[in-house]
Design a protein that fits this description.
Elements lengths: L13 E4 L4 H13 L24 H21 L6 E11 L5 E4 L5 E8 L24 E4 L15 E4 L5 E6 L4 E3 L8 E11 L12
Antiparallel strand pairs: 1-7, 2-9, 3-8, 4-7, 4-9, 5-6, 5-8
């Protein structure tokens, strides 16, 4: 008897815990407090405010951009994808007050990066590889990654249909933008602050011919 086991179509999630980010996080929190106009309330539309445009004048944004680029490169290397020619970047903030949350959504991009500047205190590992957490236990500002397979939660042969991420300051995640995710209600009396980066990969021109329909 010959038995072969395969695990096709895995979804890669990369985490990076950056060291010594306290000064950066303080600058980012202070920036959003001083400049409430920079908080676009999680607007991902094409005409949304893109914080990357401030990188040339605000050092904290420039450092954050560099960290996101590092994360994207690490994800592409882990996935075995040759570096694209260019990457379009869209950076925006997600600031949550007490009781606020983010509904299930995904992003119109190729990759999504999330960086946490201010979160609830937690002594847990960001991700428990063994899982086993109750889906309906909200926690405090927990990021929930939902299985991208259609109706995966409705079948008894599915062993795990979600992953919970317990954020902490200095933590970054990189994962495919098609993955549906949500954030449970923030319970603290301060503003929880995260930044998200949409990555759209641009590749060298191929053999196809572009033709205008105008």
């Amino acid at each position: 008897m010959e038995v072969t086991d395969y695990a096709f179509f895995p979804t890669r999630v990369l985490t990076i815990q950056f060291p010594e980010t306290e000064p950066l996080n303080a600058e980012l929190c202070d920036l959003l407090e001083r400049r409430p106009d920079l908080d676009d309330r999680f607007n991902m539309h094409p005409d949304a405010q893109n914080l990357v445009r401030l990188a040339d004048t605000i050092p904290a944004i420039e450092r954050l951009r560099s960290m996101f680029i590092t994360g994207a490169k690490r994800w592409l290397e882990a996935e075995g994808i040759a570096a694209p020619e260019e990457i379009d970047l869209l950076l925006f903030s997600n600031r949550l007050g007490r009781g606020e949350f983010t509904i299930v959504h995904n992003h119109p991009a190729d990759l999504i990066g999330i960086y946490y500047a201010r979160t609830a205190d937690s002594d847990r590992q960001p991700i428990d590889p063994g899982g086993g957490e109750d889906y309906f236990e909200a926690g405090d500002g927990v990021l929930v990654l939902h299985d991208p397979r259609f109706n995966a939660n409705l079948t008894t042969v599915c062993n795990r249909d979600h992953v919970k991420v317990h954020p902490r300051p200095g933590l970054m995640l990189i994962f495919p933008a098609y993955v549906w995710h949500s954030v449970t209600p923030h319970r603290g009396d301060f503003n929880r602050l995260a930044f998200s980066m949409n990555f759209t990969l641009r590749w060298p021109p191929g053999p196809t011919v572009r033709h205008s329909l105008k």
